[in-house]
């Protein structure tokens, strides 16, 4: 007892000595602070205040029984304190009419040495007009949209349109949506002769002070938007629900097709047909007349008539509209055949059916060496999933070695003869691109021996030779689109993900598996590491873990996929084990990923179904007009446009809900349509541009859409591009 008492007394003595050294009770009082924040508008950056903007400020005093403050301003603008002060103290700041910087300070009345400063940057309002570059056909109408940045700035504009420096003959600003205008091509000039610009109504100097921060649309006037040599591909189903695929080439002169050839796969086998025909725009009075029309490929066989939409780059997206089947496809201006020579490696992804009509998918690489007319293939690889079996009659143990040769057919196509892993034959046509990684050369391919091997078609893409294709080389953000089957129904998914260079893969995804919906699922789940990727050799083959449901209880494990890369975060995907045989692409997400907003979506988008997993899919093409209104509820024009499908080839009006669309900083979001019927889609932004503008501005050039209504058992992936 005595020893314990003595020890306790010693501790008490030590504590008292320590307390005396700190001022009496051993506790150092927390510092009194004043913090100033913008409370309205909410979530506003102090570095992005627009001229004349009004802000509500709040001063929060911590660790003091008195909270009264006085306010002061250093720099331009006006500051109005609230008198008497409220708790917390508030004030109103109105920015000056020009760019600059200011500091607002709240000072504690009871101790003027304690202050809370807030630095503000007032930046000019700059504008983005889209589409930025395109061709407009004589007499046709093109819609243009504008957005003002910062996003909180009023979306009100003054538009100008000049043709060779003179006012345009027919240019009209929409009476209801300030950020929307219509140009009709009735001027007499040529390439890039029309300039269309929009400036803010409250800060017209923004584009004068820093013109590089504003986008002016440059328009070329042409007799017809369909002109030159195109390569095209199409896949779908005939009137008996048998799979059909077509690839080919045609040459058009001002809308009239003068020559061409196509390879066609049907239930009766492979055939080749010559092509004539033409392109006719829809009614010149239609507000989308520059972007839509009818493409006829007269071949003596079906499909031969398509409803088409054209994006600003001139790419044609199309669905069959001849009443003899359904499906979708695309046509692009072909690159020069002289690009295809020397040693070039191509990653590929093919999809189709086997000899029993079951779904099959191929992915792999083809190292090709030759003079452009003929050559050899050595050191290639292939993975195959035939109705859920990665070990099959084509490839025993994946990956399988590929070898063969190729030879020009002399009609704009080449014949590809593979000798291993088994004998297989294909034709391919040169599509768009070049032999550089930014715009990789693309081929459209189709099998020519379906009676012996599966009937498949797909795409070959030039592989970037500057990559080493290890884990570290595959580092960044990507968007993947997957399509498969679930017995008689469709199974589709969209994924936005990040590879970290160390084998870890993380992100979010949405999936519609025959009406079973997984919405905005984050992966991996907290504390797990079961979403990985790994390089498999140095030829661009990777294994990935995708989909599953890490949020379920118990968690659903992801599916194993193989990817053959054509470049960094780019390539062709194939699931390795499921009967869904999910195939698709991974694409790098452009600049600005992780910093995207709804104001970056406005524009006129040509949209179309990418492929149909089942005959029950209803393919569509559409012109979608997205505008941005940041004051009050969205009007119906936040999403507007025309949708064409097999039942309504003349088109039906599409409008959106209020609000019509939303997007997260990662680039995934939603679109809700109210007409022609209530439909809900998720969207995933892919390519962006202009992100250097003040460090925050991007224009979303294209995005992917997917139906997420439970009633839709046959959803599809839709590609939308400005």
Q: TL;DR of this structure?
A:
With 722 residues, this protein is mainly β. 3% of the residues lie in helices and 53% in strands. The protein has 6 domains: 1-28; 33-122, Sandwich (Immunoglobulin-like); 126-222, Immunoglobulin-like (Sandwich), CATH 2.60.40; 224-334, Lipocalin (Beta Barrel), CATH 2.40.128; 338-462, Beta Barrel (Lipocalin); 487-504 and 514-586, no CATH class.
Report the sheet with the most strands, covering strand number, pairing sense and barrel closure.
9 strands, antiparallel
* Largest sheet strand order: 37-36-35-34-42-41-40-39-38
What fold name stands as the CATH topology of the largest domain? Lipocalin
The structural domain count equals 6
- CATH-level-2 architecture of the largest domain: Beta Barrel
Cα distance, first to last residue?
Answer: 87 Å
Shape: globular
Q: Tell me, rounded to a whole number, the average pLDDT.
A: 89
CATH first level of the largest domain = Mainly Beta
Q: Would you identify the regions where 5 or more consecutive residues have pLDDT less than 50?
A: 1-23, 692-696
- Portion in helices: under 10%
Question: Number of helical runs?
Answer: 2
Fraction of residues in β-strands: over 45%
Task: Give the beta-strand count.
Answer: 52
CATH superfamily of the largest domain: Quinohemoprotein amine dehydrogenase alpha subunit, domain 2
Radius of gyration, Cα only, in angstroms? Answer: 30 Å
């Amino acid at each position: 007892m005595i020893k314990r008492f003595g020890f306790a007394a010693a501790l008490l003595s030590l504590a008292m000595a320590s307390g005396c050294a700190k001022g009496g009770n051993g506790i150092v009082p927390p510092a009194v602070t004043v913090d100033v924040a913008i409370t309205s508008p909410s979530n506003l950056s102090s570095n992005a205040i627009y001229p004349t903007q009004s802000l509500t400020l709040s001063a929060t005093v911590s660790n003091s029984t008195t909270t009264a403050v006085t306010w002061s301003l250093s720099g331009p603008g006006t500051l109005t304190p609230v008198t008497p002060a409220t708790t917390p103290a508030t004030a109103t700041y109105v920015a000056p009419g020009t760019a600059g910087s200011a500091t607002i300070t709240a000072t504690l009345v009871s101790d003027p040495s304690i202050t809370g400063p807030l630095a503000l940057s007032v930046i000019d309002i700059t504008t983005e007009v889209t589409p930025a570059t395109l061709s407009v056909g004589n007499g046709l109408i093109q819609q243009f949209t504008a957005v003002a940045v910062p996003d909180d700035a009023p979306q009100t504009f003054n538009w100008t349109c000049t043709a060779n420096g003179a006012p345009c003959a027919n240019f009209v600003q929409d009476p209801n949506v300030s950020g929307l205008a219509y140009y009709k091509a009735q001027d007499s000039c040529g390439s890039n002769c029309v300039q269309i610009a929009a400036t803010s109504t409250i800060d017209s100097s923004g584009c004068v002070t820093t013109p590089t921060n504003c986008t002016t649309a440059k328009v070329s006037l042409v007799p017809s938007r369909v002109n030159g040599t195109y390569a095209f591909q199409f896949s779908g189903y005939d009137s008996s629900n048998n799979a059909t695929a077509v690839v080919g080439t045609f040459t058009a002169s001002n809308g009239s097709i003068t020559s061409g050839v196509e390879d066609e796969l049907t239930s009766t086998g492979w055939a080749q047909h010559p092509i004539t025909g033409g392109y006719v725009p829809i009614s010149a009075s239609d507000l989308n007349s520059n972007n839509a029309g009818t493409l006829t490929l007269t071949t003596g066989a079906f499909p031969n008539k398509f409803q088409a939409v054209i994006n600003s780059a001139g790419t044609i997206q199309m669905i069959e509209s001849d009443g003899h089947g359904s499906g979708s496809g695309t046509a692009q201006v072909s690159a020069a055949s002289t690009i295809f020579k020397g040693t070039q490696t191509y990653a590929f992804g093919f999809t189709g059916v086997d000899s029993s009509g079951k779904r099959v998918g191929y992915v792999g690489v083809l190292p090709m060496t030759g003079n452009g007319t003929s050559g050899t293939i050595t050191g290639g690889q292939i993975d195959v999933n035939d109705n859920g079996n990665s070990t099959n009659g084509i490839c025993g143990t994946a990956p399988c070695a590929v070898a063969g040769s190729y030879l020009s057919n002399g009609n704009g196509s080449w014949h590809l003869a593979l000798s291993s892993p088994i004998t297989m034959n294909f034709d391919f046509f040169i599509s768009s691109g070049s032999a550089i990684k930014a715009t990789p050369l693309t081929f459209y391919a189709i099998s020519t021996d379906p009676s012996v091997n599966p009937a498949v078609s797909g795409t070959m893409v030039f592989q970037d030779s500057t990559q080493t294709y290890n884990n570290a080389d595959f580092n960044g953000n990507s968007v993947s689109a997957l399509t498969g089957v679930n017995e008689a129904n469709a199974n589709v998914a969209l994924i936005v993900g990040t590879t970290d260079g160390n084998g870890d893969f993380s992100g979010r995804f949405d999936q519609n598996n025959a009406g079973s919906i997984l919405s905005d699922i984050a992966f991996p789940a907290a504390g797990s590491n079961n979403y990985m990727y790994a390089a498999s050799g140095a030829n661009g083959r990777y294994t990935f873990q995708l989909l599953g449901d890490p949020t379920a209880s118990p968690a659903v494990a992801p599916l194993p996929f193989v990817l053959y890369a054509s470049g960094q975060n780019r390539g062709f995907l194939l699931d390795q084990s499921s009967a869904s045989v999910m195939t698709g692409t991974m694409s790098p997400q452009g600049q600005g990923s992780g910093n995207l907003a709804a104001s970056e979506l406005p524009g006129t988008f040509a949209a179309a179904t990418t492929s149909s997993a089942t005959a029950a899919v209803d393919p569509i093409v559409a012109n979608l007009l997205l505008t941005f209104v940041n004051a009050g509820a969205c009007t119906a024009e936040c999403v507007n446009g025309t949708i064409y499908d097999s039942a309504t080839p003349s088109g039906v009006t599409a409008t959106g809900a209020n609000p019509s669309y939303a997007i997260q900083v990662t680039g995934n979001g939603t679109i809700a349509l109210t007409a022609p019927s209530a439909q809900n889609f998720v969207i995933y932004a892919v390519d962006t541009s202009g992100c250097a503008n003040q460090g925050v501005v991007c224009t979303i050039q294209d995005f992917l859409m997917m139906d997420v209504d439970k009633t839709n058992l046959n959803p599809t992936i839709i590609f939308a591009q400005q």
